[in-house]
Design goal:
The protein is an alpha+beta fold. The chain has 13 helices and five strands. The protein has a five-stranded mixed β-sheet with strand order 2-1-5-3-4. The longest helix has 27 residues.
Length: 287
């Protein structure tokens, strides 16, 4: 059996795979790591529809000649999904009260709902809240969706645009212990929320830059830490420090919160941003 990806032969050695389902399962991680998802399956020239999937997966690979897998990049699928979500929001807003109460039951079974659930759990929760008549406003959901689209379509520019928010976040982190000491609990909570939002956005953009091949290649010098590894190391260190900060904040350990916020989180957040910017291909990073 010959395996093709988007019409091109794939150099893939079978181990113990006996069925099409087992072959696809073996290829799934490879596709994911390369930033792709399967969009269509063809067996000996016959396109397999959704209703044929179950039978196709159980077929013995010895009974076929060519398995052709069509893929789309995760970014392409995400863009299509988010554009569909914007249409879903408009449709929901046009419904009367009775129709709105039933909307989520149907929507959650859609392809875009399943993709959102897999890729962005927080966004799915917001969709569920809006489409179930919860507390989140549909305009807020629209704004979040449009933000996600910008992160996918122009990740480098979106990272550049993040800088003012990043500066504000770091300044507020420095002020965090004083806010707690002086009873400004609301401002302190807002600072933690702002920090979480800025951090998550940087991680999302980094993932897009990496998946879309917009980060510079790793150094060929084996004695030098590669750029990508240095970013991943910074992310790991940042994650550990963030856990420690949140735990200290929950315990109201003001001294530790102050030390971590001012001397750990603010500098690490700025450095992570700077390193990612310097590793972006093209002009955005140099700017």
């Amino acid at each position: 059996m010959e395996i093709k990806i988007n019409g091109k032969p794939l150099n893939f050695t079978l181990d113990n795979e006996k069925t099409i389902g087992e072959v696809l399962a073996a290829l799934e991680q490879w596709l994911t790591d390369s930033g792709h998802r399967m969009s269509e399956l063809s067996i000996d020239g016959e396109i397999i529809s959704a209703s044929m999937i179950e039978d196709a997966f159980s077929r013995d690979i010895m009974t076929l000649k060519i398995l052709d897998i069509s893929t789309k990049t995760t970014a392409e699928l995400a863009t299509s999904c988010l554009l569909t979500l914007l249409d879903d929001i408009k449709k929901y807003e046009s419904l009367d009260y009775g129709e709105k109460t039933q909307f989520f039951k149907t929507w959650q079974k859609s392809a875009q709902a399943k993709f959102i659930s897999e890729q962005w759990s927080a966004l799915f929760s917001s969709c569920a809240d809006v489409f179930s008549g919860g507390s989140v406003n549909s305009r807020v959901l629209q704004s979040i969706t449009e933000e996600r689209l910008r992160e996918i379509n122009k990740p480098a520019q979106e990272l550049v645009n993040l800088e003012p928010l990043l500066i504000e976040t770091c300044n507020r982190l420095v002020d965090l212990p004083l806010d707690i000491q002086t009873g400004k609990d609301k401002r302190a909570a807002e600072t933690i929320q702002l920090f979480s939002c800025a951090s998550e956005k940087i991680f999302r953009i980094y993932k897009q830059l990496k998946n879309q091949g917009l980060l510079k290649e790793e150094s060929s010098d084996a004695s030098e830490e590669t750029k990508e590894k240095s970013i991943l190391a910074l992310i790991n260190d940042f994650g550990e420090a963030t856990k420690e900060l949140l735990q200290a904040y929950e315990r109201q350990d003001i001294i530790l919160v102050g030390d971590l916020a001012e001397y750990e989180m603010a500098p690490q957040l700025q450095n992570l941003y700077k390193v990612i910017m310097l590793n972006i291909r093209g002009t955005a990073g140099s700017q």
